[in-house]
Amino acid sequence: MSSHRQSKKRRYITWAVAGAAVVAGAGIAAQTSMAATTWPAQRTYTGRAFDTCAAPSLSAMKAWHTGFYGAAAVYVGGKNRGCAQPNLTASWVKSVSSIGWKLIPLYVGAQPPCQTGSSPEKLTATTAASLGAHDAADAVAKASALGMKAGSPIYLDMEPYDIADKACNDAVLTYVRAFTKGLRAKTYRAGLYGFSSSSAKAVATATNRTDLPGNLWYALWDKQNTTTADWPWSKTLYTGHSRGHQYMVNSKETRGGYTITVDRDAWDAPVAITG
C-alpha cells in the first residue's frame, strides 16, 4: 500500500519505474474452482473501505464507525509485512466485527525478483511455485488464528515491478497461481492487490486464466470512488462482486478524536467471514 510496505517516496519511484450492503453468493464460480468442495456463501461488502499500515486500536475503530467507511483492510501476515500489529488479535477481530466493521485480509508475500529495493522475501523462477504454496498455507493459518473462517478471502499484496520483463513476470504469475491453489485447497477465496500499471495488470491481462485469483484489488490513484467507471480492462473481467479499487492514498483523517492516515478504497468484493 502507499506507505505500508515501502515509504511513499519509494512507492512512487517504483511505480514510475514499473511503468455498504452484505450479500451472498455472487461471483463464486470464478473463485471456487476446487471440485467436490462445499463452499460457504461469499460475504460481500459494497461501499467505502480504508487500509492503513497498522490495525487501529479498538477505541479508534469504534470512533471511526460513523458510516463513512464500512470496511477496513488488515495485514494478517507475510514476511514483507511492513508494520507490527499489536492490535490485530482474534479478540480485536471479534470486537470490531461485532460493531459492524467488515474486514479485508491482506497478506504481503514474496515479491518479484526484478523488483527494485530489498524485500525480506523474494521469489525466483525456481522457488516461485513452492513459495506460493508455502505462503498460502501461512496466510490461511494466520487468518484462521484471527477468527477469519473458511470462505473468507485473502488478498495477496504484489508491489510494482517491470511486467515487460518476461522471465520475471512469468515467475510472479507462477507464484500467484500457487498461492491461489493453496488458498482454494483450504476453502479460502483468493484475491490480489496490485497496481493498474503493473502487478494488477499482469493478472488482468494474462492470456492463461488458469488458477488466477478470483478477485482483483487495483491501485489507481485517480480519486474516483468507483470500481466500474475507471476499470482499466475488459468489462467482462472480475464481474459479480469481485473488484476493489484503491483510489486515494495518504489521506490524513480525524473521526471521533482519532487521527489516522489511510488509503481510501471503493469496494465491491468479498470480505472476511467472522463471528
Explain how this protein is built:
The chain is an alpha/beta fold and about 280 residues long. The protein is built from six helices and nine strands, in the order αββαβαβαβαβαβββ. An eight-stranded mixed beta barrel has the order 2-3-4-5-6-7-8-9, surrounded by four helices. Helix 3 links the parallel strand 3 (about 70-75) and strand 4 (about 100-105). Helix 4 packs across helix 5. The longest helix has 20 residues, at about 165-185. Residues about 5-30 have low confidence and may be disordered.
Give the helix/strand layout.
Blueprint: H1 8-17, E1 21-24, E2 43-51, H2 58-64, E3 71-77, H3 90-99, E4 102-107, H4 128-145, E5 153-157, H5 166-185, E6 189-195, H6 199-204, E7 215-219, E8 243-255, E9 258-270
Parallel strand pairs: 2-3, 3-4, 4-5, 5-6, 6-7, 7-8
Antiparallel strand pairs: 1-2, 2-9, 8-9
Helix pairs in contact: 4-5
